[in-house]
Amino acid sequence: MRHCSVQVRGLLTRDELDRYNALIAVGHFLETEKRYDHVAVVQKEIDILILPAIERLKEKGRQRDRDTEEYLARKAQMQAELEAALRDDEDEE
């Protein structure tokens, strides 16, 4: 059985996580019984189950990128305002 990443697992809802853990347990049991034909079906169910959490992880990344872009724009604006204020102070003297 292939586990999903810790990041994805952390974004599963309680119901999704309970189902994920149950499917993993079933998959491990099937592996010990050497029923690999059924293991593939269980793995496919797990892969489908984690898709919403993968999307949530992608959205978190996109939000982080937007936040970084906004921060850099504000930083550039503040730097420009500071430089303008310093030039104004030099002109007054």
Description:
The chain is mainly alpha-helical. Helices cover 86% and strands 0% of the residues. Helix 2 packs antiparallel against helix 3.
How would you summarize what this structure contains?
This protein is mostly helical.
List keywords for this structure.
93 residues; single chain; mainly alpha; 86% helix
Task: Please write out the topology.
Blueprint: H1 6-10, H2 14-32, H3 36-49, H4 51-92
Helix pairs in contact: 2-3
The whole-angstrom Rg is 25 Å
The H/E string reads: HHHH
Tally of helical runs: 4
> Assembly state here?
single chain
Which residues form runs of ≥5 with pLDDT under 50? none
How much is the average pLDDT? 94
Helix content: over 70%
Briefly note the structural class of the backbone.
mainly alpha
Number of strands: 0
The share of residues in extended strands comes to under 5%
The geometry reads as rod-shaped
Main sheet summary? none
Question: Kindly, what is the distance between the CA atoms of the first and last residues, rounded to a whole number of angstroms?
Answer: 74 Å
